[in-house]
Structures are given as structure tokens and as C-alpha cells.
Amino acid sequence: MIPPGLLPEGLRDRLPPQAEATAALVHGLTATFASHGYERVQPPLVEYEESLGSRLGGAARRELLRFTDPISQHTLALRSDITGQVGRIAVTRLAATARPLRLSYAGPVLRVRGTQLSPERESVQVGVELIGSDSPAAAGEVVSLAVTALAGTGLAGLSLDLTMPTLVADLVAAGWPLGRASLADVQALLDGKDVGGLHALGAGAFEPLIAAAGPADAALARLAALPLPDAVRARLDAVAALVAALPDIAVTLDPTERHGFEYQTWIGFSLFGAGVPGEIGRGGAYAIVTPEGATEAAIGFSLYVDGLVDAGLGVVDARRVLLPLGTDAAVAARLRADGWATVAALSADARPADFRCTHILDGVEPRAI
Amino acid sequence: MIPPGLLPEGLRDRLPPQAEATAALVHGLTATFASHGYERVQPPLVEYEESLGSRLGGAARRELLRFTDPISQHTLALRSDITGQVGRIAVTRLAATARPLRLSYAGPVLRVRGTQLSPERESVQVGVELIGSDSPAAAGEVVSLAVTALAGTGLAGLSLDLTMPTLVADLVAAGWPLGRASLADVQALLDGKDVGGLHALGAGAFEPLIAAAGPADAALARLAALPLPDAVRARLDAVAALVAALPDIAVTLDPTERHGFEYQTWIGFSLFGAGVPGEIGRGGAYAIVTPEGATEAAIGFSLYVDGLVDAGLGVVDARRVLLPLGTDAAVAARLRADGWATVAALSADARPADFRCTHILDGVEPRAI
């Protein structure tokens, strides 16, 4: 028998004031997205496993919580990510809507198991997708929006880590010598910062990429000094312009890092902040596969609200006033219209502190206690 | 193979503007709850089936979507209702918090199958629970809050249907003659308004309860004329006071109706409105079982937001302005601060109508188009 009050591993209740903080952060972030023209969509929590899974990578697909639908006998799954659902909506139900299409979303996601850094199995994901373009201008808008939205939460120490997920493949395509290594070998050696390994396989040309990681301005300068094809140089210019347009936050560039998001195209990014372990959010450019088998360019980001809540952000400092028995309803309504949360005493001995009230109504005005 | 874009039966995407309307309604309703002192809790979407199921009636328990947890091998279920989760929190993690405890919640719920009236399997439930009292004052507060919150959504034709779920049992306990009928027989005959059946079993004393259904004032007067025990008469007085304190909406009393919510105690209620098929919400007094096996009185209500959205409520009429290429970032920020949603053109030929913009920026001011 399950003890009353016990929850399965990796699942938790949010209590006051954290539950309200979660709602306030979601509201604030999505309001910022809306003010930049992103329109809300709300896909369902559950879809066909085949449909959800086909829009995830293999490892992520194994993290889907799945079950047999008692109605259709199909295998359904709880979504572990909303990005893919938004892409599905964009290329099916909103296929005829003009591009770029700007969509936002917010809601819970679930996965089979948490990680050491983030043991929760249920979390709240919010984000935007800009569909129909992954141009430098689109990337600039999306990265800037992520930074603006997070800054609006009061998060301190916000920093941005940029990556160029297709850089190595682009250089190989442009003729940089692989020696006896494969593209995958070179990417793995770069992920491990393995200079010796690169040289051993005759792929020493890629070594300078390891040194070109760090604060964005210096990293961009180091990269620009390399013999790059024009297309890559244009992307560096786009990254430099994007960085220049950001407010004064720490920006690093780790050009060959892929963060396990191999589906991204020319730019990827992660966001970090003071007091939040691990990433707060991530995003990048990618391609959505349409029902006709074509692809459509897109760029977006997801933010994970729970890390912000755990860091103490979003807490709403409500002014709470206890209304003694018999308080006139019109007086109570006026206080609420003035921004007070009113707590009606149901007995003559109700004490303000028991109800987290900072004030008690004295006549027609709140009195601090 | 599942066609791209196909969703399982009973599940749907919310698109613009309905997705935003859902979020706006949830925000408005929960803000009203907060202004009345109700503090937010957020239980998980998934719990042990045993735990969720034990707080539901038998029929509702069969509607839980369940699956085996790949981690613990326990049977888990997706919640079909949040009320029971809030009760669990109240009597476990918040057992030591002063009563009455006022909690609110909002979130998705899922069930195995929809109904003919409401085919969706996923819906958004919001509500409040007042825990530690089901006194007339508590009932008055909760019913009034439900009406106030719904009125704030702009819903027209709001009406309230009150019930007294334990009335028949209370009258039997006070000695009203059952004849050859059982309590369950009488309740079933009253549910079917079966006058002949009541008389045939010698339970004709209960017949006047059938006529005492209808507009609340008249129904209360008819009931008051019956030979009632003092405890029931006191409850009628409480219902009359509650009705008198409400704004000018249609209130009916169907004293013996139980709406399938047999766990309710002395009062139950349902809410209806123009353009919304079926109930918008329901509530009532009930008892929460504590881990020690005792009970704690509570009263609350749940509202179902999807019916309001489907009736066209909650749609946010955003002022959207297209920003031509090269618009100054400071000008854009000022427009957003003034309440505009800005849509940045990513190409010189962007047309306002394609992005649902009502205005285009002309110099530093929006111009209607």
C-alpha cells in the first residue's frame, strides 16, 4: 500500500509561494513573447508515440513515457518536449499561414527519468519558434528575445553560450583535410578537446578550432584569422552582429560544441544564470520536415521555468489583509481593486499571522500588524 | 503509419487566438482567486494510481489513464481531477497550517474517454478549495467567489443550480417514513421524479421534495413549509442567506439532485452560462480523509475553461504593429511598453495583414492600415 502523501520518484508538489512563482514566471515570459508578436499555440499533452517520437532524436525518444490507449489500442506518449509539436502544427494546420510564423507555447512536459543535475521528471517548458526563416535577422531576433525575456524575470548573472553546430561539417565540405579521420571522428575529438588525437589521424587542420572557444569577441577574432570558406565567414559575421546587438551580458562562443542537439543547423545557444544549476534554456536553428518530405527552416528556444523557481525567482509579494467578521462586501471589493488580497475571517478569533496577512482591516483601511 | 498531423481521438491543438484565450482565462480566474486570499498549489500531472484512484469514486477511477512506471514498476496514472490532489496536500504537507486553508490550482487533466457533450479527453481545470470548514460562511464565500470569477470572464447568462446532497438521508435519519423503500430506493425515485413509485413503496412523505425544485426563492419557501428537523431548517436558512448575498443571477434549487457527486455533504452547486453546453463548473461541501483516518470538512469548486474558450470568451484583442526593416530597437521597446505587440519585418516586402497587424510603424508612430 502506498502511504498517503507519497509521490512517485521525480514528481513533486509545488506549494505556496513556489506554485504562484511558477505561474507568475510563465505569465511574464509568455507576455514578453506576445509583445514581440509571438502567438500562442497549445498542443495536447498526449500524442501518438510514433508521431512524437519521430520528431525526437533516438535518445530522447527512449525518454518518452508511453502507454496503450484503452480506446484506440494505439501506443500514446506524454510529450517530453513541445518544440516538435509546434513544428508539427506549423507545417500541417498552419502550413498556409504567411512566413515567418511566430509561435509561442508554455506547458508541462514529462520524461521517463530525470538527470543527476535535474532529477525531476515533470517540468514546465516555455518558448518560441520562428518558422520559415533561420536568417541572421531571425537568429538575432530570437536570441535577443530569449535574453530580454529572462532579464525580465530578475535573473542575475545571465550568460549566453553560442555554438555553430554545422561548422566542422561545413569546413570539411569546403576541403579542410580530414586525414585518416571521418567527420564523426573529428567532431568527437573536438568535443574532447583532443589535440593529440587530431594530429595522430592527420586532422591537425582542425586544431585551431579548439583554441577558438571562449569569450565571443576573442573567439570570433581567432576564427576570422583561419582560412574559412565565404559561407562560414558570412555566418561568423552574423554571429558577431548578433552579439553586438545584445545588452551587456557575458557571451561565449564554443564553435564546435553540439550539446547533444545534432539536429541544429548553423547556430545553437544555451542560457545560464546565477543560482541556477545547469542550463536555463537552449535554442538554435533547425529544419522542420513537412508532410511532403521537404524541410522548412526554423529557429527558436525553450526555457525551463523550474530552475528559475528553485532559485527563488518569480515570488509574488502579495499584500494580504485580514477582513474581520462582518466586513462590508463593498469595502472588501474596493481593497481588491486596489491590489490587496483579502482574507475573510470565518471566526471572531482569526489571527492575521495564521493566514500570512501583513495587515488587518481597521474601519475601512488596512492597518499593518 | 500515423499520418503527420493526426492526433488521437479526443485530443486537439489549440491555435491562435484560442490558445491565448485559454491562458488569459486561466490567468484572470486565478488572479481573482488570489485576490480573495487563495494561495496556489501545483500538484504533479502523474501520481500513483492507487493514490489518485482512492480519492475518486469508482466510476471516475475507471476513467484514469494509467501506465506502468518504467522506473519503479508501479502503476501510475494521469490525474483526471485536481481537487483530490489538493485535498491530499492539505492533509499531509499542509496539515500543520492554520485552518481555514484556502488553496487554488489550475492545470490540465486527462481521462480515458470524453462524453457525448464534451468529447475532449484533455481539459483545463481551475478552482479553489477552502479546507477546515464547510460552515454557511465558508459556503457563502466559495459560491460567491465562483460567481464573481466567472462574471469576470465576461460570461453572459450565468446561472447557479444548488443542491442539498444529504437532504434525503437527513430526513430519513430524522424519522421521515421510508415505508418498504430503502434510502437508495427513495433517492433513485426522487432522481427520476417518480411520484407513483414513491407512493407504491409507502414513501409518499418524500413526494413534496419533487415539487420543491425550481427558482431558489420559491423552492426554499416550499421546503420551509414541510415538517423539517431543526438541523435541516438551519441549512435551508444558510442556503437562503447565500442566495440573498449573490448578485442578480438566476439561482435554482434542486434539493434532492446529486449530480453523481455522492461524496458531497450538505451543499452542492453547478454553474451554467449562455453559449456553453453543459456545466461550466461545479462544487460543494465534502470531507477529506486524513492519513490518520479522520475527516476534515472542506468546500470548493472546479471550473472547466475549455467550454468558455469554445464559447468565444477570453480572446485578447492585441494591438499589433509591423516594424519595417531597420526600425530602431528603442522605438520598438517603447511601443511594447505602451502595450503594442510588435512584429519585426524580416524582409522589405513584409505586409502587415500577413502577420495580423492592424498597424504599421510610420516614423515613430503606428499608423492604422
Structure description:
The structure is a homodimer of 369-residue chains. In chain A, helix 5 packs parallel to helix 11 and helix 10 runs antiparallel to helix 11 (230-245). Chain A has three domains: 9-43 and 82-156 and 258-317, BirA Bifunctional Protein, domain 2, CATH 3.30.930.10; 166-255, no CATH class; 320-368. Chain A has 369 residues and is α+β, with helices and mostly antiparallel strands. Chain A is 33% helix and 23% strand. Chain A has helices at 18-35, 49-54, 58-62, 83-91, 136-151, 167-173, 183-191, 195-200, 207-211, 216-224, 230-245, 305-310, 329-337, and strands at 39-40, 46-48, 65-68, 75-78, 101-110, 122-131, 159-163, 214-215, 250-253, 268-272, 281-289, 295-304, 320-323, 341-344, 359-362, 365-368. In chain A, strand 15 and strand 16 form a beta hairpin. Chain A has a nine-stranded mixed sheet with strand order 1-5-6-12-11-10-7-9-8. A four-stranded mixed sheet of chain A has the order 14-13-15-16, with helices on one face. At the A-B interface, helix 1, strand 1, strand 2, strand 3 and helix 4 of A face helix 1, strand 1, strand 2, helix 4 and strand 5 of B. Chains A, B: It comes from Sandarakinorhabdus fusca.
